[in-house]
Automatic annotation (TrEMBL), chains A, B:
Signal peptide: none annotated. InterPro entries: Aldolase_TIM (IPR013785), N/Namide_PRibTrfase (IPR041525), NAPRTase_N (IPR040727), Nic_PRibTrfase-Fam (IPR007229), Nic_PRibTrfase_pncB (IPR006405), Nicotinate_pribotase-like_C (IPR036068). Pathway: Cofactor biosynthesis; NAD(+) biosynthesis; nicotinate D-ribonucleotide from nicotinate: step 1/1. GO terms for molecular function: glycosyltransferase activity; nicotinate phosphoribosyltransferase activity. GO terms for biological process: NAD+ biosynthetic process via the salvage pathway. PANTHER family: NICOTINATE PHOSPHORIBOSYLTRANSFERASE (PTHR11098), NICOTINATE PHOSPHORIBOSYLTRANSFERASE PNCB1 (PTHR11098:SF8). Transiently phosphorylated on a His residue during the reaction cycle. Phosphorylation strongly increases the affinity for substrates and increases the rate of nicotinate D-ribonucleotide production. Dephosphorylation regenerates the low-affinity form of the enzyme, leading to product release. Its EC number is 6.3.4.21. Residues 152-353 form the Nicotinate/nicotinamide phosphoribosyltransferase domain. This is Nicotinate phosphoribosyltransferase. Keywords: Glycosyltransferase, Ligase, Phosphoprotein, Pyridine nucleotide biosynthesis, Transferase. Belongs to the NAPRTase family.
Amino acid sequence: MTRSSALLTDRYELTMLTAALRDGTAHRRCVFELFARRLPGGRRFGVVAGIGRFLSLLRDFRFGEDELRFLRDERIVDEPTLAYLANYRFTGNIVGYREGELYFPGSPVLTVDGTFAEAVILETLALSVLNYDSAVATAAARMSIAAGNRPLAEMGSRRTGEQSAVAAARACYIAGFSATSNLEAGRTFGIPTMGTAAHAWTLLHEHEADAFRAQIDALGADTTLLIDTYDIARGVQTAVDVAGASLGGVRIDSGDLPLVAAQVRAQLDSLGATATKITVTSDLDEHAIAALAASPVDSYGVGTSVVTGAGSPTAGMVFKIVAREASNGSWVSVAKKSAAKATTGGRKTAFRTLNDSVATSELIAISPRFESATDAASTYDARALQVNLVSAGEIHPDHEGIRAVAAARAHHVTARAELPLSALALSRSDPALETVYVTLDETSGHQ
Amino acid sequence: MTRSSALLTDRYELTMLTAALRDGTAHRRCVFELFARRLPGGRRFGVVAGIGRFLSLLRDFRFGEDELRFLRDERIVDEPTLAYLANYRFTGNIVGYREGELYFPGSPVLTVDGTFAEAVILETLALSVLNYDSAVATAAARMSIAAGNRPLAEMGSRRTGEQSAVAAARACYIAGFSATSNLEAGRTFGIPTMGTAAHAWTLLHEHEADAFRAQIDALGADTTLLIDTYDIARGVQTAVDVAGASLGGVRIDSGDLPLVAAQVRAQLDSLGATATKITVTSDLDEHAIAALAASPVDSYGVGTSVVTGAGSPTAGMVFKIVAREASNGSWVSVAKKSAAKATTGGRKTAFRTLNDSVATSELIAISPRFESATDAASTYDARALQVNLVSAGEIHPDHEGIRAVAAARAHHVTARAELPLSALALSRSDPALETVYVTLDETSGHQ
């Protein structure tokens, strides 16, 4: 049996549900929107990740006996609420950005359309998944830009929670990394895995040469030897002595990398190991990778910085009610007004406007009816950004599972290719695209 | 059936295992140590968290059919390795710091003693858990110091991975928070949960007063009303109009908090609601909490900053081999030598030296034999920091589960009370205690 995801929820959602069932507002239709107010860290774009994971968790968002017992024993909700939760299943609609898509401030990354009761209790789960996965994917995309055509491997599992590690490997792969060290990510999401040896392997043996010989004996001469346990120059010499000039690769995990990479390359070449590749893995982030662009490095391994979002460990997205049915049955746009956290009410339909295949703006049409927005946008050269993820409670299988990861990775390449060149700079700046709101006359358009 | 934790592992650990089984080094006894080289973010102390979670995951670290099939299908290991993993169970010893204990650079937070094969494959799991949980606990402890006697609630689930959210709630509770919004943390670890309503609750209703009335009807007048959806002064007036002067509390989630809290307190008092409490929850970190010390605030809710480690989202701990059996059966201390990542070899026993109950140093005795270190330390006024967590593969139940969380929270209070006053400052500085290494003659001491 799959473990329920239903308690990955903030208590206030069930408190509101209790009060709403009591005053009759629980069954009002509402539209909730998940979006980012701003891009943290001066990023020029964000990368959506986590959609497929959220959909799988939504499938398991059911209150079974164990969950209900906890809520009853702790007096978190009353009996009518327990009865409601026992039968809970999301029956509404969710549209959202494709996984791998780019987003900007205000982009309606997810739009959840259902009764208040069924939508409000998804807030925490949706945000936890999208905020972490998108933070990592956004950092990963910047590293992928910095690395150019050189492959990047994610190896940061040890520097984030053990389950977040799996999500991070997935987000990195979507945003352009080519492999991960994390085996669970290989099993669950079909991501290629990699890895050869740690310093412990060398230290387990009396001599570095013994460790190298045993590794080659087990894995073949095309393995990658870690050559910096004692002295790098001696390590390179020993590696080639043991493996011969056909050694697959060496890994450098310390030192001043541009300098060391050049020295190692020269030494390998002088020993005839001209095809032996150099991987570097020491505390890399997008800036360190960019600084190695002219160095003879063949591939990068990135740990801490990517799994912690390279300085922005959460995407900071929020989940807000933007429209609801009034007591007379009409739709009302709603928004929080106070202070710096004001939101833009109304249901939103999003398009990326293009000029000669280069993105020019994030166009957001505000209208309670999706159709009228689509009509309006057809007058622009624009790409619709939202797809149906859940229809009347049914999850669209295209957006979930292993195949969805590959599709997201491919879509990210397409979406990134539309960006103007200025969006690829690593320095802190404003979002690369401006978000433009267009409010449509809510009485126009066909029903 | 519990899901196996065995693939929450970096591939290189299994690659090393393959090679070690082949060259006969797999069964050499080794000592691995988990420690931090430094305290990130200029912190003056670290807080150990995650020990109990690691022990539970260690219990589930077994390679079942599904795990073995993946490793075979992907050709990650060879057949002898699959056979070894099929019977894998950790049979060694683990000693470590109590959960809730403080740590400093070099503190041997965990020491894993077993064969190379059985110890090396625990690296990623141990680090993932300890690095995330300790990063959060360390941030939480600083907030708890800043908050003084005012209660702190953790409400950051939405800003970290959905499973990390549960771990974060647990780490915060251990480090001095009094409650969490996360229901799964309530169920799994027995942590008190809290929460009343979001802005969506007010926006669901035609009028703020309707929302307040319905909430009070469902939850009683001692509930906490969120009063900043539209206008704070009007929100306070409406709250007292609806609930009367016995209203339990109001929550403020936006604005310039010191100013707003003072205004709200004055308004509540003028309306006779002198016992109504004020909770603030807007983007708080330890510095914002400290800045509210003189404001009429009764409790704090902290989200993003604590679950992301308040600027240091990982504790940066590493897992290194420090000693191994030589081919002649004697013990050898081992350490990586190169560059900035050199480590201190040898098995370590740790003590906190005290003077009049105030901690004065982190004393680390290096000796292959625990007994000789304990003898040596008995000459100091010192508290032994390590406890037995796993003995010959058996997990000590005291350190796992719900009761272990309460014990860790209590131990943290004790350990923090020993710190010198300078350790409680929030500014960036050096560790509050110096780590002092004492190398014992490895031939002395009784066997």
